[in-house]
Amino acid sequence: MPSVLPDGDPAPADGLLPALCSHNAQERTMSFYVHIPFCTVRCGYCDFNTYTAKELGSGSSQASYAATVSQEISFARGVMDKSDIAHREIETVFFGGGTPTLLPASDLVSVLGRISSEFGLKPGAEVTTEANPDSVTRESLQELKDGGFTRVSFGMQSAVPHVLAVLERTHDPKRVPQVVQWAREVGLDVSVDLIYGTPGESVEDWRASIEAALSYEPDHISAYALIIEEGTKLAAQIRRGQVPNIDDDDHAEKYQLADEMFAAAGYQWYEVSNWAKGDEHACRHNVAYWQGGDWWGAGPGAHSHVGGLRWWNVKHPAAYQQRIDGGISPGHGREFPDAEAVQLERTMLLTRLSSGMLIAELDEHGRKAVAGLIADELIDPKAAFAGSVVLTQRGRLLADLVVRELLDF
């Protein structure tokens, strides 16, 4: 089952935000995340807040979910107004999960419509949905495009059947080029997600997946190292010796291979795990997260961030629906991270970006550490001389070490 929520302070039933959240709000971007917590099956590696029909039980309904989450969006507008948070049009929207495209395209479009009617979408707003290759048709993609979506991110993961089998992915890898073609035909930007380091995946398996992904010519590629989360089926299989454990050296070799092959094909890295064909195809929604923008997360277990305050909704769809039906905030807990936590997170996130982090933002210890990190070939000397910490490829492999050195912990 998904991991437990953090504790934090209890979130108030009215959802109102402290006055501090309104400070300089007009200078920050505003985004929306919509969590769709439904999947046809639970993949063995997944630790996300998702539910199959069997796990869902009574008290919540997939059929009525769009209406329920739309109520939270209207609730959000009321909270922002009553909390005197400056109104801003939404710059990016991201539908994640779960598998958002298990809902009818009309449902996703109606939720986007509620965001637009309550907050307004900024001209040129980026609107993304995640999708499994077996959860869309050309017609549903056309409906999403006509309804205001601009981008789709397909969970490809691998092109190799035995790797997909370990991950318990259900789609036929031969379907991926078909759905990418459909998305392109209707005018959507396309991203594909890959996972490397699956137990039993050889370097040649990984090379085959990269070559396949590149052959589809997506606008954007994400490549994530498999992380074994406690409580997942895959973690139990590894513990019992049914599948081999993951290996850090294997991860490093596969990351380097991906980075080199992506670069040779014209993709530029803009974040440690993300590559795009030019800045215009970078995922602006994720960049807003990494750069500390504001966002409201709607749906069970969704996290939000406004003006430094973080809060998270109750996790189970039934509890979430009960709160929404009762007209009260679905928030479970919230917190203002202290200055040390904020600096740690900011350093971790900004140094993962190709734009980097300004050296001037570091304290004296961090500024002094830069020279050593250049000597160790972990940060780019040219960027450092220009005033920014930008990771080299080696530095991207050791990003956590770089952060520890910059912050002295």
UniProtKB/TrEMBL annotation:
InterPro entries tied to this protein: Aldolase_TIM (IPR013785), Coproporphyrinogen-III_oxidase (IPR034505), Elp3/MiaA/NifB-like_rSAM (IPR006638), HemW-like (IPR004559), rSAM (IPR007197), rSAM_sf (IPR058240)
Subcellular location per UniProt equals: Cytoplasm
This protein's UniProt keywords: 4Fe-4S, Chaperone, Cytoplasm, Heme, Iron, Iron-sulfur, Metal-binding, S-adenosyl-L-methionine
**Primary subcellular site in the record, as a coarse category:** cytoplasm
Identify the residues that the record assigns to the Radical SAM core domain, covering every copy: 24-268
Q: Which Gene3D superfamilies match?
A: Aldolase class I (3.20.20.70)
Q: Which Pfam families does its entry note?
A: Radical_SAM
Q: Briefly state the protein's biological role.
A: Probably acts as a heme chaperone, transferring heme to an unknown acceptor. Binds one molecule of heme per monomer, possibly covalently. Binds 1 [4Fe-4S] cluster. The cluster is coordinated with 3 cysteines and an exchangeable S-adenosyl-L-methionine.
**NCBIfam families named in the record:** hemN_rel
- Assigned protein family: Belongs to the anaerobic coproporphyrinogen-III oxidase family. HemW subfamily.
What is the name attached to this protein's record? Heme chaperone HemW
The source organism is Glutamicibacter ardleyensis
Q: What is the lineage of its organism?
A: Bacteria, Bacillati, Actinomycetota, Actinomycetes, Micrococcales
